[in-house]
Design brief:
Number of helices: 24
Oligomer: single chain
Shape: globular
Distance between the termini: 71 Å
Largest sheet: 7 strands, mixed
Number of strands: 17
Strand content: 15-25%
Radius of gyration: 26 Å
Strand order of the largest sheet: 7-6-8-9-11-10-15
Helix content: 25-40%
């Protein structure tokens, strides 16, 4: 078998030694390499397949890593990683101890900026370009590759607005494929569609912002890309190259089913057919319980509306968008806008269910405080992907929400232990609350096969005693409480150990807590979130306030960033797994 061109590429330096005629073959081999690895190991697929030729062209024309290259959201950076020295270890992508699925500065000198969340590249590359100018590095190039879904974000517009009044040597490449994770939405998408058709208004929006605009260029045509990138090297000031690509390019099913093949799981590398998981009946995903419950509630309550910032599939708001489209809104990658729009709706008497991944709500923190909580507007925040999320890693773990929300006055925080509790708190919220509420639930499946039970109202600030004890009690919040129930069964449910599903992190069930501190000799708290400012901290604050002296043992995530791996692996690393809790319980049980 003839040696492949890709086998000889250990860095972009080797790539730049090739004759340009060899680049189409290299692109084909790179595409096949990505498909082979992701088919077996899982990961993000469509975005990286769509920018293979662009990746090759950028590293061929520009002198990376001296020239700075930022990929907006690392979904599209697999080819970049493979060409920049990580080919031999690419099969460890997203695995415990392996390379990250996103660009990461500490991983490679070619990863100029960490990009797990969208729309940061333009601001970051402008900062780098200004720094280069101040340091007298006038020949260094600065390139940001950003998708059409990401460039519609407020932060990206802030960067464009500033860049347009500078003389910064920056090239923004707009990778226009009409889709992020879900199809792109909004007026800018319509404008870009008209540009591609040649029917846009005479004035070009980017030229009006003082960018040297060129394109659209076929992003899969190296004969078009290479000379245009070479030309742009000598153009001074802010530049924008509009590139048209197809997400999933080179794998037919990935091109036809772009949402599914964003991150498809395992698939047949030849046909692209998805490999079906075990047919055994599994519990539903929390996101689907949310999505179906919202539709059920909305059909009986005309004031309910649903909002998501670009995650209709991931959040399952798509069910409401399909059945009640005039009351369900995908606002694009615009978390701040989503929160304040929800506040406006609540101010007018609607009941907005604002569905945002925990890690993405961080991006709208001021809006939660200033626009919702300070005005005491009863927005219902549904925080999907709360806790450790697995192989997406540190940028996506939803481990800070308890801490950053608990300090906000008038905000209720609830963590359901199972699907029925999620349904019932959603039902309770739409009956009318005096304050906003955040409902946090994890990525993945619940624990119940039958969860579509009749709705029951939950009294705000109440917990549920699952098992009485005499010596040790475990106070849990959220899904991780199921692990405690399993552990106590494995220990033959000793009468000394109690278990309480606290549910509400704010307000705490102080009546229950007073009984707990007066009954038990040892208290254990457990949460799938950071210890600093978390649920365990709230229990310690209560104990201090009431001058209780009962020892409290806090299980949570230490003051460190947790990398990527499977959720069970990460729970073990964070020591919030069954073995860690069992060890402490056995130790406490053996104390006299």
């Amino acid at each position: 078998m003839a040696e492949r061109i890709l086998d000889k590429i250990e860095s972009p330096k080797h790539l730049r030694e090739l004759n340009s005629n060899a680049l189409p073959q290299l692109a084909q081999e790179l595409r096949e390499f990505i498909i082979d690895i992701v088919a077996a190991k899982e990961g993000h697929l469509g975005a990286s397949l769509g920018v293979v030729e662009l990746t090759v062209a950028l590293h061929y024309i520009f002198n990376t890593p001296n020239d700075k290259l930022i990929w907006d959201v690392g979904h599209q950076a697999y080819g970049h990683k493979i060409l920049s020295g990580r080919k031999e270890i690419f099969d460890t992508n997203r695995q415990l101890g392996g390379i990250s699925g996103f660009p990461k500065m500490s991983e490679s000198e070619y990863d100029d900026f960490g990009t797990g969340h969208s729309s940061t590249s333009i601001s970051a590359i402008l900062g780098m370009a200004i720094a280069s100018k101040l340091k007298g590095e006038h020949n260094r190039q600065h390139i940001a590759v950003i998708g059409d879904a990401s460039i519609a974000s407020g932060m990206a517009f802030e960067g464009l607005n500033h860049m347009g009044v500078t003389d910064a040597n920056v090239l923004v490449i707009l990778n226009d494929n009409a889709i992020g994770i879900d199809p792109s939405v909004g007026a800018l998408k319509k404008y870009l569609t008209n540009v591609k058709k040649g029917t846009a208004k005479d004035e070009n929006i980017f030229e009006c912002l003082n960018f040297d605009y060129s394109g659209p260029v076929d992003g899969h045509d190296l004969n078009a890309l290479l000379p245009e990138l070479e030309r742009l090297k000598s153009v001074s000031g802010p530049k924008l190259l509009h590139v048209i690509t197809t997400k999933g390019k080179g794998l037919r099913l990935a091109e036809e089913n772009q949402v599914i093949y964003h991150a498809p799981g395992k698939f047949d590398k030849t046909t692209g057919e998805l490999i079906q998981k075990s047919a055994l009946q599994q519990a539903s995903k929390y996101q689907d319980v949310f999505g179906h419950t919202l539709v059920e509630l909305a059909k009986n309550n005309d004031n309910i509306v649903g909002i998501t910032p670009a995650m209709p599939t991931g959040s399952s708001l798509k069910f409401m968008m399909q059945e009640i489209p005039d009351r369900a809104f995908d606002v694009g990658i615009a978390e701040q806008h989503a929160v304040t729009m929800a506040a406006g709706m609540a101010a007018e008497g609607l009941i907005p269910f604002c569905n945002i991944y925990s890690t993405f709500l961080q991006r709208a923190y001021d809006q939660v405080i200033h626009d919702v909580a300070l005005q005491n507007l009863a927005v219902v925040f549904c925080l999907d992907r709360a806790g450790l999320v697995g192989q997406d890693g540190a940028t996506h773990h939803g481990v800070y929400d308890i801490a950053y929300l608990r300090c906000i006055p008038k905000l209720i925080i609830f963590a359901p232990m199972n699907e029925i509790e999620l349904r019932n708190i959603m039902y309770t919220a739409q009956l009318g609350l005096e304050h906003p509420i955040a409902i946090r639930y994890p990525r993945g499946r619940g624990v119940l096969k039958e969860w579509q039970t009749p709705f029951e109202k939950i009294e705000i600030g109440t917990s549920e005693e699952l098992k009485k004890g005499t010596k040790i009690v475990v106070l849990s919040v959220g899904h991780i409480g199921n692990m405690i129930s399993e552990l106590l069964e494995e220990l033959d449910a000793p009468k000394e150990i109690g278990h309480i599903n606290m549910r509400f992190i704010k307000p705490l069930d102080t009546k229950q807590l007073e009984a707990v501190f007066n009954t038990y000799k040892q208290i254990i708290t457990i949460e799938d979130g950071c210890k600093a400012g978390g649920f365990g901290g709230a229990i310690l604050e209560y104990a201090n306030q009431m001058q209780f002296e009962t020892p409290v043992h806090v299980f949570g995530i230490d003051d460190t960033y947790i990398a990527h791996g499977t959720i069970p692996e990460l729970h073990e690393i964070a020591q919030i797994d069954k073995t860690s809790v069992k060890k402490l319980i056995n130790s406490l049980m053996n104390e006299k």
